[in-house]
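Entry for the shared binder. Reason: the reviewer on the internal report wants the predicted structure included alongside the sequence.
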Amino acid sequence: MAIRPFLFSRLPAIQFGAHRAETVGSAVSAFGKTVLWIRGRHSLSNGGAHALIADSLKSDGIEFYEWEIAGEPTPADVDKAVTANAGRGISAVLSVGGGSVIDAGKAISAMLPLNEGVTDYLEDVGFKVHPGTKIPFVAIPTTAGTGCEATRNAVLSSVGPAGFKKSLRHDNFMPDVAIVDPLLTLSCPPAITAACGLDALAQLLESYVSTKATVLTDMLAVSGMERVKDSLIPACTNAAQDASVRTNLAYGALMSGITLANAGLCVVHGFASSIGGMFSVPHGVVCGALLAPAVRVTVERLAGREDSLPHLIKFAQAGEVLCGSRGDTAEETCDMLVQKLAEYARVLGLPKLGAYGVTPSSVSAIVEKTGNKNNPVMLDKDDLKKILMESL
């Protein structure tokens, strides 16, 4: 089979493995000696991670200022951090935390050189084009989910009826260094581990079946799914302290970031953008709740269409990876995939979207704001409503 031409974006310098976080001082000192350290409210409170990071920075003679981000970052959060730290001669921005903390740090590093409000630079919201200048940025995830340590966009939200969830994006915003230490995820609570893991799984699957997928992103996505499939449930139940299980999830999340940055995502993340702008729902919960119904409806639309056979086969291949077996036909294996995705959400006790205030009366407004670019088949409004109603 011929290999289609493809583009593949640059990656951070990736340091992966247990105890890698102990080298953060050395990694950051390559950019200077004054660091703005972005962290979450709780992400470093257990397991001595805060002391570990601080000691490493101090041992390399680095002066650091700490800044807290609570919840998914808003433009106001970014603006406040930039204003407060613009005059400190920051040589690098360090984010240690979950996806929200890393996205916030990424945006802060991009806006510090400009010292302007970030809203005007957001996709589909602002009217300015960012020049791509930034303060060097180092990302250390403490959850295994978004993979944003390997992406070039920062997602910011403004929640409400006219809210949005949009990206600040530029090729230069890729982190300079990503330090992925699975030991930092050992203290992550089961509910957060589940939501983050389902987000990573959604990103791996969607980038694999995306219309922009390539032979290279396919290989990486499959390797990620292979690691996540048998580790997600144990990490949330009886093996939460198993370093090898956490390592598998951290690897899967990293691969999901790399593949989404190069292959794009599909309808699940189209929903995540619209729902996340209207309701305060954790991103991973949205993805996990929507994943099985979105795949089912997409596969139903693909079935019986001769021109869609290659896409149907890819869903079946993903089903074989996640289920460890296949049916007699591609359609049967796709059914197995849908059942497996639903099983993950059920066993992990993932809440439905209705628990966060999403109701049938909200469906039409959400659908109007939901895109499904890169989806293997374009879904109409009735399809989108069907997916959403199953997730309430």
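Summary line for the report: Residues 190-391 form a domain with the Dehydroquinate synthase-like, alpha domain fold (CATH 1.20.1090.10).
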